[in-house]
Design a protein that fits this description.
The protein is of the alpha+beta class and 399 residues long. The chain is 23% helix and 38% strand. It folds into 3 domains: 17-142, DNA Polymerase III, Chain A, domain 2, CATH 3.10.150.10; 154-275, DNA Polymerase III, subunit A, domain 2 (DNA Polymerase III, Chain A, domain 2, Roll), CATH 3.10.150; 280-392, DNA Polymerase III, subunit A, domain 2 (DNA Polymerase III, Chain A, domain 2, Roll), CATH 3.10.150.10. The chain starts with a helix and ends in a 7-residue tail after the last strand.
């Protein structure tokens, strides 16, 4: 009898210890959610979490549940994001860490409309209609704080414009260059407008648009170079249906806040080219408008017969015709003609087709763009009527 009593006492003690352990690991949490809405938000946030890291805790997404709503967040200590989740029924507020490698596939492979998620800090259980998963959970208290948006001084820019600014400049950056600053988009704020610039040293893209200021706004003299990866995340996280997006610079941190998400990024340091000197003043030479769709198709055709060693295409502007010709010793040669409205002197400039196609790809196919070229050794300067400019440096080629 004494032995039975001792066993019962030990069991109760063990149960109490387990209960205390769960309490230390994190508060209990219980929700039911629309799987599709959670998956869309999770995939956006999970793209920030590193697949490999000396800090394994960063390979998780933090799920925070309050009576006011549900937020998921992730960070790699350079870029962070907080994203609100809709379509959630909150039964018990709390916090849980969700493994990107495990929870992501569960969301993706499930066919259930609704998932029930419950966590006691030790483990997290995900239940569908005919499936159940139990994942070990890490201590949410060890997860780094992801910056929110609590600024009283900021800029406001239309969501569609910000997405367009990013879309038209981020492709021209260079993440592989030894020049650290080229791995991001430079932002300038001046007299009610924002200018975004991306360059890899061989081409440069510039887009501008109007902004409004609340409070003191942003210090226009501060060097603001936002990492390419952060800009791509901002473009992906912002809903084009949003009205205005708030932008702030806090020390060396760049903050963007929309109705659903807050993105934070550590600014890049280093020297950035003076983009104003890259755009030459117009002084003679060729100047005409070209159709986006037809030009893009012609460049794609001519680019077929190029190689890494001979990647340039000769753009010859003659009387009423643009001739695109390419030649590679181990491939062959191509000639593509495009009728144009030009009656000036013949001019040939050699350009990298990748740079031309990437420019044309971010424009509407049914629109036109303006191009200016002074001579065979000068840059091709392209522009549109909505504040977009693009400069491509010519390639040297023996003829």
């Amino acid at each position: 009898m004494s032995t039975a009593l001792e066993n019962q006492t030990a069991a109760e003690s063990s149960s109490n210890d387990a209960s205390e352990s769960r309490g230390k690991a994190g508060p209990a949490m219980k929700i039911s959610c629309d799987r599709e809405q959670l998956m869309q938000a999770f995939q956006t946030v999970a793209s920030v979490a590193p697949s490999r890291s000396p800090k394994p805790i960063l390979q998780n997404v933090k799920l925070e549940v309050t009576e006011q709503g549900v937020t998921i967040s992730a960070t790699d200590l350079e870029v962070g994001i907080r994203h609100q989740v809709t379509g959630v029924d909150v039964q018990t507020p709390g916090v849980a860490l969700l493994s990107v490698a495990r929870f992501g596939p569960i969301l993706r492979e499930s066919s259930d409309e609704t998932l029930h998620i419950e966590s006691d800090g030790q483990s997290t259980t995900i239940r569908g209609e005919r499936s159940q998963f139990r994942l070990q959970a890490e201590d949410s208290a060890e997860f780094p704080t992801v910056t929110g948006f609590n600024e009283s001084s900021y800029l406001e820019v239309p969501a569609r414009l910000l997405r367009e600014l990013i879309h038209r400049t981020v492709f021209a950056t260079d993440n592989e260059s030894s020049r650290y600053a080229l791995g991001g988009v430079k932002l300038e704020f001046d007299e009610g407008k924002m200018i975004a610039i991306g360059t890899d040293g061989r081409r440069l893209a510039k887009m501008e648009g109007p902004i409004s200021t609340t409070g003191e706004g942003v210090d226009g003299s501060q060097m603001t170079i936002v990492p390419t990866r952060a800009m791509q995340l901002i473009e992906r996280a912002i809903d084009p249906c949003d009205a205005e997006v708030k932008i702030a610079v806090k020390g060396n941190e760049f903050l963007v806040h929309s109705a659903r998400a807050t993105i934070s990024a550590r600014l890049l340091e280093g020297r950035f080219p003076d983009w104003r000197k890259v755009f030459p003043e117009s002084s003679g030479g060729l100047s005409l408008d070209l159709a986006v769709g037809a030009t893009h198709a012609a460049v794609r055709q001519a680019a077929i017969v190029t190689s890494e060693e001979s990647r340039g295409i000769d753009f010859t502007f003659a009387d009423g015709m643009l001739v695109l010709s390419s030649k590679a010793a181990d491939v062959g040669q191509a000639r593509v003609e495009l009728p144009i409205g030009y009656d000036g002197e013949e001019l040939t400039v050699t350009l990298d087709p990748r740079f031309v196609m990437e420019f044309l790809k971010v424009l509407d196919a049914d629109k036109t763009f303006h191009v200016e070229v002074q001579n065979a050794e000068s840059a091709a300067v392209c522009s549109t009527d909505d504040g977009y400019g693009y400069v491509i440096m010519p390639l040297a080629r023996d003829r």
